[in-house]
Amino acid sequence: MSAQSSTSSLTALQKTPIAIIGMSALFAKAKNLQEYWENILGKVNGITEVPESAWNLEDYYDPDPKAPDKTYGKWGGFLPKIDFDPLEFGLPPDTLEALDSAHLLGLVMAKQALEDAGYNQGKEFNRETTGVILGGSGLWKSITPLTSRLQYPLWKKICQKSGLSQEQTDKIIENMKAAYVPWQENSFPGMLPNVVAGRITNRFDLGGTNCVVDAACASSLSALKMAISELIEGRCDMMLTGGFDTDNSILNYMCFSKTPAFSKKDCLNPFDATSDGMMVGEGLGMLVIKRLEDAERDGNRIYAVIKGIGTASDGRFKSIYAPRPEGQVRALRRAYQEAGFSPATLGLVEAHGTGTPAGDFCEFTALNEVFSENNPEKQTIALGSVKSQIGHTKAAAGAASLIKTTLALHHKILPATINITEPNPKFKIEDSPFYLNTETRPWLPKGETPRRAGVSSFGFGGTDYHVVLEEYTPKLPQGENRIHHRPQSILLWGQNPEELRQTCQKALEQLQSLQGSQVYIELQNQSKSAQLPLKVARVGFVATSLAEAIKLLQAAVKQLQKQPQAEAWEHPQGIYYRKTGLLLEGKVVALFPGQGSQYLNMGREIALNCPEIETAYQKLDTLRAKAGLTPLSAGVFPIPTFNEVDEKRQTSLLQRTENAQPAIGAFSVGLYKTLQKTGFKPNFVAGHSFGELTALWAAGVFTDDDYYYLIQARGQAMAAPKGATPQGAMLAVTGKVSQIAQWVEGMANVQIANYNAPEQVVLSGLASEIATIEKILSSQGYQVTPLPVSAAFHTSLVRHASQPFGKALDQVTFHAPQLPVYANVTAAPYPKDLSGMRQLLEAQLLNSVQFVQQIENIYAQGGYCFVEIGPRQILTNLVKQILGDRPHLAIALNPSRQKDSDVQLSQGVMQLRVLGLPLNDPENAALTVKNSSSKRKGMILKLNATNYISDKTKALIGAALQPDSPAEIEPSVDSQTVESKCEEVKGSENEEILASIPSVNPYPSDSQPLSEEIPTLNLSIVSRDQTVTMTMNNAISNNINPLLQAFYQYQQSLAKVHEEYIKHQSQSFQSVLQLLKQKEMTAVAQIDELSTPAAASENSKFDRQNSEVSSVSFPDPTPFKSEPQPLRTPEPQPLNTAPQPLPTPEPEPVHISPIVNYLEPRQPIAAISTPEPVSEVSEPSLDSIQDDALSQALLEVVSEKTGYPTEMLELEMDLEADLGIDSIKRVEIMGSLQEAFSGLPKLSPEALAEKRTLAHIVQYLREKMMVTEKKIA
């Protein structure tokens, strides 16, 4: 076959693989890509009850799935709040509430994905050939309120049919309409899914294809398929793809409740025996993709490579909604045909896995059929679903799975699926290629085959997608690109203990401040490479979070106060202190453990983060594959089990000599190499039994490859011969050695194999005689422990191992040791001649281990600080027993089998640093502090998936909910019932009211001017209005008078809510009065206007309507911060124009002085003198209009027309790019400005269109004014 014909037979993706170079993520409990991945690794459950910001459980929840108009689902995955700056994306604040949150969050995710790909503001790319194709479904949570607002004809008919007057009907209808965000010019595009992509291309100036595709729950992978086609066919050079779904509205819940598909439990557990349904989630995930050759050419970081994608439809089936295995099988086979390799080569499949019994069974059936073809292996492929952690994110589900799998390949980690207690027995998974991966584990490759993974996504209507990924192997070595954090070390110091205590106290206070997160990162960075003079006092610890750091620092401060003169102490929580460091030069000993220290998953967490350990196991896996043996890594990191029988079987397998010794060796080597990166350099090395081989390697006697070969050969040689019954056994005995030796003398085939400690030895010999002496010594009161070994090591009974191990030694090259290596047999350093070294090492198999004398001799030569490098702390404890009360230090780097091994490693290094060793932190990658400040001001809003609503609209809604005059309504309801309801509001929720202002569901808003905190709106009170409204609609035709009275009484209970709302406007009035003082002429006019504010009028009206509510005494609201806060309300008004009236009854005049008096004691400010009333204000002449006044007026008009606070506006801002002000809005702004300054020259729309910034407009106006003045002159 010619090269040309061979190339023509390749599929499109084989010819043009696609690289994933950037990603962003926003899912439940994850604000960004890093948090998303860390949550996956940490097995964080993001499922929570429905928050009030989504909808009210009291209104819609009923555990009965058959309850009409109710949902039995109340759990799901909900987005956290993130910062959103409208100015950054050129969106006027007044337009935000017309846009679905997917539009706003989509911009943030697009920016983060491009930045993650390396394309931030400082790096350009070809925008002309960059496109955006996303997956998304209908934005129903935006459509629903707009549609609901249009139901007023029906409301009108019901009200009229119920006997209400035209006036009453109109008032009710207007109030009900006011409860929804009004229609505006942005409403239509704001509800369209496709505009999410269009908005991104608009803002980032991208010229490629942009669209949004809908394939239901497979939308994200459908978008990926189209984006790949754009690249392969050459229409684009880079694509932004992925999916979004921000709709966990009540409509969404109702849809899945009536299907029905929801689980009745509080967790989602796909493929589990108890799975009973799914849970919905919100999320956005985006990926930046390129042709692989282009990504390599441009030097992009490549997360993974897309090798195949298969699509299919289910065809005709019993139901369009029911999943069909045949359709999924088609998609799977097409994907691997395109990839060009067998699915059996995969190590991970990220399933659709929704948790519905029928769906999971259908999917597993399809997977098993395809992956079992020509594949006899069982349980070698991990199966999981991220939905167990974040819920089913519908249109974004494929993106969530694809990002998870891409990061798994990039980090070489098999992520866990949570909430699984037992696999569904219907699957018979033990007879399939799959296993459910419930633990986060290192991902070792299958021989020479690169790591590969598959991702599935299926949608309503029988649409099936499967994507095949492969790890990227860089052509050139790359640094660590890990995005998750390892445990972080904190090291603090002072000239003396008191100064150290003060330093710790100050650090604690800073960590507990609003800047705590930034301070935490700064402390970590300064601790990484800090080299302390020996004379300073120091304290150190390791934390995995800010909260833990605060807790540990509190304990450190307390201990420093208790023991100010102590030389050293160690806190049980892992805090290490010394008054001064120790000079340890020439005194450091590295110890390596032997067989018996191994345990399942030893060093698992270190292996997730340290490539040195993964490399060691990979080398041994390759060696064993050549010998026809199972991978060593599969024994050390076995597949998760669900019963004790399987776990015991795995433990027994690892204890076998041929597995235990190379497993310990690989871990010890990886740990030692990791420690070396911190700067660790021992002065002596020694090992126990098998560990002596590792000690020789550490001293430079063997190369890495020779060492791996020898530890594999030694384990094989010392294992019991095949087919032979193990005859040897070993027994640990605690007691006086001299007395134990007397008992051993009477046993012909038993001898002391290990002299471990002054009162501990290990006996080795024939199994029958070991059993006999065990009974004898136990009866004499000795503590005896049989060891889990398969032979009588260090006796003549393992002579069968001597010859094969000797042959293995002949195959390697010995080098002169670079450090003193103390031998087990002689307790002295190894000889320098290579022949003598070989003979001594071979003799070690048959001779006893003189460990006590070894340690004594090392100590005599200056060894002082003993560091155990390997699993557990067996040797550390032996050293402590041997040296007793003599001054020494003994530290294990992996002391516990139960605790996080990576935390333990960092703690061990911290102990050494506190002692005085000049080491760096194991986490050498510096953490970056994201500086939120920019060169220009910003308006920071807190957004999640709930649509944004402005404070101005909230005020309108609040006004619509105020009660009408009691004279208009006939009271006829049960007064006892109404009174109890009012007491509920007045009682337990009083405190909540004072701490927050109510918001109206479903449009909560959390705006935060600049970066300051503001009161959070409490939805629990106003949300009851939904219940009242529903009741009114259902009962109005039966008895109108009781209904209206109930509504009236409910409105009374809201009076004090409004009163508190008025109080929170005080800061706004304060700022206005300050502004008025600075501009007397304008101030006079505005004070007249403010003398009858609508909101104050309403407050006055409450007093007349209901004395009980209005007379409730309120404690002072939360005190204002010492520094004035940027204002959010009311919106600044154009000069010399009256504020727009609220849709409420005609206000009555209220003098402003009481408001001023109310403000004064709550926020100290400069005294404000009230100007004398002026009946008329003359228009300013052209001469009197100064640049500053003109500029300020322009800023105020722009603020009023766009919603941007004046304090964040700058004259140099671009009208369109920065502020989103189009040509129509410019004309409106100029019209308002000319109303304020009638002498301004009129500008044509064409002239305005040429002005790019606010400063340009001011300059142009001034020039025109100067021309006019000259003409007049």
What are the low-pLDDT stretches, counting only 5+ consecutive residues below 50? 1-5, 929-935, 965-1044, 1046-1185
Radius of gyration: 37 Å
Helix content: 40-55%
Number of helices: 50
What's the CATH superfamily of the largest domain, by name?
Thiolase/Chalcone synthase
Question: How are the strands ordered across the major sheet?
Answer: 6-5-7-8-1-9-16-15-10-11-13
Number of strands: 31
Which CATH C-level class of the largest domain is it?
A: Alpha Beta
The biggest sheet amounts to: 11 strands, mixed
Task: Write down the CATH topology of the largest domain.
Answer: Peroxisomal Thiolase, Chain A, domain 1
CATH level-two architecture of the largest domain:
3-Layer(aba) Sandwich
**What's the overall average pLDDT, rounded?**
83
Distance between the termini: 93 Å
Class by alpha and beta content = alpha/beta
Domain Ketosynthase family 3 (KS3): 15-471
Protein name: Acyltransferase domain-containing protein
Pfam families: Acyl_transf_1 (PF00698), KAsynt_C_assoc (PF16197), ketoacyl-synt (PF00109), Ketoacyl-synt_C (PF02801), PP-binding (PF00550)
Keywords: Acyltransferase, Phosphopantetheine, Phosphoprotein, Transferase
